Amino acid sequence: MKAVQFSEYGGPDVLRVVDAVEPHAGPGQVRIAVRAAGVNPSDGLKIRAGRWRDRPIPLPSGVGVEGAGIVDEVGAGVIDVAIGDAVFGYGINTMAQYAVLTHWARKPDCLPFDAAAGFPVIVETATRILAQVGIKPGETLLVNGAAGGVGSATIQLARYHGITVIGTASAPKHDYLRGLGAIPTTYGPGLVERVGKLAPTGVNAALDLAGSGVIPTLIALVGDPSRVLSIADFTAPQYGAQGSFAAQKNPERVLAEAGRLYSAGAFRVALEKTFPLTQAAEAYTLSAAGHVTGKIVITLP
Ligand SMILES: NC(=O)c1ccc[n+]([C@@H]2O[C@H](COP(=O)([O-])OP(=O)(O)OC[C@H]3O[C@@H](n4cnc5c(N)ncnc54)[C@H](OP(=O)(O)O)[C@@H]3O)[C@@H](O)[C@H]2O)c1
User: Fold this and answer.
1) Do 229 and 289 share a domain, yes or no?
2) How many whole angstroms separate alpha carbon 138 and alpha carbon 159?
3) Whose CA is nearest to atom 34 of ligand 1?
4) Per residue in 213-255, pLDDT tens?
5) Which of 111, 139, 167, 261 lies most in the core, judged by the most C-beta atoms within 10 Å?
6) pLDDT digits over 98-109, tens only?
7) What's the CATH code of the domain at 170?
8) Among 291, 293, 295, 297, which residue has the most ligand 1 atoms within 8 Å of its CB, making it the best to mutate?
C-alpha cells in the first residue's frame, strides 16, 4: 500500500509517499480503507523532534493519528462494527491507504469522510478541556486561539451547552468566529482591556489553545488561576493554572456525540484545505505556519 513516512527527522520536506507493508487489526481494533486523515500540529512536532514526550520515534515511521474510512478488517472482540461500515476515529499511521483504528464511532451518512477525519482530536480535546476547566451553562469562557481546529470545536460545544464564548483570532477570522457563535476579539497587547469591554462582569474561565505566552494575562482576566487551562503551554502549572496534555482513555462516546451533533446541524468544522496523499508535505507545511482555520485534511480516492 501507499503510505506517508519519514526516514529522517526534520521539517515537512522529509515526508515521502512510499510502498509500505499493510497493517492488520489486532484484538479490539479495526482496519479501515482510509478515505481521509486529519493533519495535527503535533504530528509535525514529532517529525521534527524525533520524539514524543519521553518516547523516541523510530525510523522509518508513519504519520497521522486520526482518520475516516470503510472497515475492511475486524479484530477479535470487536462487536459494534462490521466489514463495510463507515467509521471515523483515532488510529495509527492514518496517512496511508489502510490504517488500524484503536477508538472509533460510526460515521453518519450525512457526514463527509473528509470532515469526519478531522473530528477525533479536536472533539476529544474540546470535550476534555471544557470539563476540566469546570465551565458551566450561563458562564462566560475566553478561548485564546479560537479559530483553529480545537478552537472551532471548543466554541461550538461550549455554545451548545449554553456558555457564552469570547474567542481570540486575527481580524480576518472574526466573521468565522461569529459564525460559530463566539464573540471575537484580537489577541496581543490590550487583551485585558478588550475583553473587559466585551464582558463587563468578567470571564469565569479561560482556555489557552495557542501556547502564545498569555497565561498571566488570562489569570489577570479570570482572577482564579485554577480556572485557566492550557493545552499548548507547558509552563501553565507554574502559574497555578491547569495543563491538559493527554487524551482521555475512551473517547468513543464523545466521537459518537460529535456525529450526532453534526447530523442535527449543531456542529461543523471548516476545512481550510484538503490535499491528496502525495501532497502530505505541503499539508504539514501549511499546518506548521500556525494560522489554520478549522482543519487540514488529507484525502484518498
Ligand atoms: N494538549 C492536548 O491535548 C492537545 C490536543 C490538541 C492540540 N494541542 C495543541 O494545541 C494547539 C492548537 O491545536 P489546533 O489543532 O487547534 O491548531 P491549529 O488548528 O493549527 O490552530 C491554529 C490557530 O492558532 C491561532 N493562532 C496563531 N498564533 C496565535 C496567537 N499568538 N494567539 C492566539 N491564536 C493564535 C491561529 O489564528 P490566526 O490565524 O488568527 O492567528 C490559528 O487559527 C497546538 O499547539 C496543538 O499541538 C494540544
Assistant:
1) no
2) 10
3) 145
4) 999 999 999 999 999 999 999 999 999 999 999 999 999 999 9
5) 167
6) 999 999 999 999
7) 3.40.50.720
8) 291
